[in-house]
Design brief:
This protein is α+β, with helices and mostly antiparallel strands and 164 residues long. It folds into two domains: 7-37, no CATH class; 51-155, Winged helix-like DNA-binding domain superfamily/Winged helix DNA-binding domain (Arc Repressor Mutant, subunit A, Orthogonal Bundle). It has six helices and four strands. A four-stranded mixed beta sheet has the order 1-2-3-4. Strand 2 (111-116) and strand 3 form a beta hairpin. Helix 3 (76-82) packs across helix 4 (89-97).
Amino acid sequence: MKRAGTVRRGRDATKDRGTAAVSGKPGQPDQPSRASRRGAGGDGAGGGRGAGGVVVKFEPFYRVARRIPRGKVATYGQVAALAGRPRGARLCGYALSALRNTVHDVPWQRVLGARGAGRAGISLRDPVGAAAQRALLEREGVLVDARGRVELARFGWRRVVAPR
């Protein structure tokens, strides 16, 4: 509720004007909106989209995921390390989630979150997506327990990261 005579600052200051976000501080130049800083793709990844709508910036993650054989799984951290981003497990998750609603050949279901004690698990919060991932893994012969976990000793992809 806006009271008469009040000044709106920060993000709320631009709601009524429909202009790019401003800093809200006197003497500061106007800043471009977050959407315009993203680039032409508008995907939030800072890069454009390639064939089928796949984010080009995430291609190193997709290349590694394509190398995981059927019946094997890898963790987000393992894929990130092999893609040259040793602390990029979260970014790997973003890359795979960017595949939603695109045409691609990336076996996203084979990448799971690390759970400790030699296990990895389905990380999707969406019950429909988690069920789809589970079904795809089981079709490949991967045993998934009732809690959505997989034993890495049996189904883990043993790809050694070369030391630098």
